[in-house]
Structures are given as structure tokens and as C-alpha cells.
Amino acid sequence: MPMKIEHIFFDLDHTLWDFEKNSALTFNKIFLENKINLEIDDFLKVYVPLNLKYWKLYRNEKISKEDLRYERLKKSFDAISYGVSDAMIDKLATEYMDNLSSFNHLFEGAIELLDYLKEKYTLHIITNGFEEIQSKKMINSKLYPYFEQIITSESVGVKKPDSRVFNFALKVSKATKENSIMIGDSLEADIHGALRVGMQAIHCVFDEATPTDKSITTVTSLLEIKRYL
């Protein structure tokens, strides 16, 4: 990988912040509090792929933020034939967002990697996550001090992989496409989005189900990134 890198842009969820683990803990908490009598693993088997499906629709401007929050829960409960009122779905959707940032497991090696990179590069975040909770995640997980700029898609008005997100991030970070690299888990949103504007990229593949591209530098653990930076 040809490198003259000065700026590193990270995705947050599924890349540094262990979204699936923290999400499962959040659901376990709110289900207990609301007396939702379900095995959490049974729920997650249907929720996780549905959540990815609805996030893709949201990313592609096919549904609204409100539709995403409601439909991913509604369709999950329907899929396992568990009756829940619309009022309860709205309540769970709100409580999920309120509690998600209280669990802050990071992927193994995250802090060690950031300590290593911080000495050599300027670090930033580009995230499609909801703005109101992304900063809470970063503060509560002690990630905030590592990053100079935190760019959310909501603040830009468009979502990754839209080139405008990456160009905005480069501008506010005073970086160039030639001296920047994107690190993320989504081949479509993070990697292809960054490559289209001329940035370099490293694809984090922590799950066997994640689509990959053999032409792109890929790592299966965060600490493996040290080999390239």
C-alpha cells in the first residue's frame, strides 16, 4: 500500500465501538424493564439482519430516521410472532436510543491501536450514526480525546458513501485525499465511498458474513492495522 498518510478517518460503529455487543446488552436491559418475555438470542437472530437492511435503506435515503427506528423493531417482533403494541414499540425505540451509549465495549485492541496511531497521525471520525448518541458513545467509551474532528452524516446532510461526506470531512480536517486514509467495516459506505474521492482505505472484516473485496487492503483485527500504518 503506497502511503504518505497524515490523516486517518475511522468509522465508529462496527469498527472501533462494538455495536452488536452493546446493542444486545441494551436490548436485554430494556426488555427486562418492560417485561418483554423473549429469549434475547431469538430476538437478535432476526433483528440483526433486519437492522442492517433498514440501515442500508436509511443510508440510501429510502426511509426516514423515524421509520428506521420503528420498522426494525416492528418487523423483528412480527418475524417471531410476538405481539407488541405500537405504543410499546415507540417506547422501546426511545429507551433503546437512551440506553445504547451506556454500554461501551470496544473491539479488542482499539485503545492500544489509537495510542499507537495518535503519536504519528491526526485522527478523525466519520459516522452515519445518529448525532445525538454518537458523541455520548465517544465520551463514555473514552474515545473522544483521540480524535480531532467528529463528522456525522446528520451534520453534513448526506450519508456515507456520498462523496460529499468525505469531501466535507477532508475540508474541515484540513486534509487532502492524497494524505488521508479511511478505516471502516462497511465495504459500500466506508471503503468504496472513500476510494471514490481518491482516499486510501483499509477494510475491517471482523465477521465472516461481511462482504469483502480482494483488491482492497483488509484486516481481521484492529491491531493488524499497525502493519500498514
Automatic annotation (TrEMBL):
GO terms for molecular function: 5'-nucleotidase activity. This is Putative haloacid dehalogenase-like hydrolase protein. SUPFAM superfamilies: HAD-like. Pfam families: HAD_2 (PF13419). The lineage of its organism: Bacteria, Pseudomonadati, Bacteroidota, Flavobacteriia, Flavobacteriales. Signal peptide: none annotated. Keywords: Hydrolase. It comes from the Bacteria. NCBIfam families: HAD-SF-IA-v1, YjjG_YfnB.
